[in-house]
# Entry
Amino acid sequence: MKRTIIAISRQHGAGGTEIAQLLSARLSIPCYERTVIELAAEKTGFSPSYIEGLEESSSRSFLFNLVSGSYTPASLYPRYDVPVSLPALTAQASVIRELAQKGSCIIVGRCAEYILREDPDVVPVFLRADKADRISFVMKDEGLEDRKAAESRLAKTDRGRMNYYRSYTGEEWGAMENHDLSINTSRTGISGAVDVIVSYLHALGRL
# Structure
């Protein structure tokens, strides 16, 4: 296999983690998702849970001010329930570049396709699914019995990821022009999505 970095962006409930893991096993290459968070935590001294919260619960106004430098160091850490600081964003980008340099791999989330956009070996993929399927996934995965609570959870996560991506990149999360493939996993299923990605890699001559 030629050096290939598969950067997966995903809607919550679209099966991103499972697809990445199956793809990793099929291609015999490492998959990095939680690893990015843990290594960034080591670099910064923040806890992994503190860093993890940025992508899924970021407010647009906070991130805009953070990236633009409007926050002062003293105002960044008034308490431990605000999104992570700019050093954490920088650390994540550094970790992603370091992992990509090691060779073929799969990186899930954290704006990896944008961070590695100048790398010719990056294959960016966006995974989405129908809303009803995503709600069902969240209800099962998080043990929620209330469908409205699951829908609210999806909306919050989507807003967080959209704000994170827009503030970090200046572009729209999930935009077609930023991805080689956009796959509706409600249509393909989990294994079908893996097949689509593998077929695309064959078409590119990477396998």
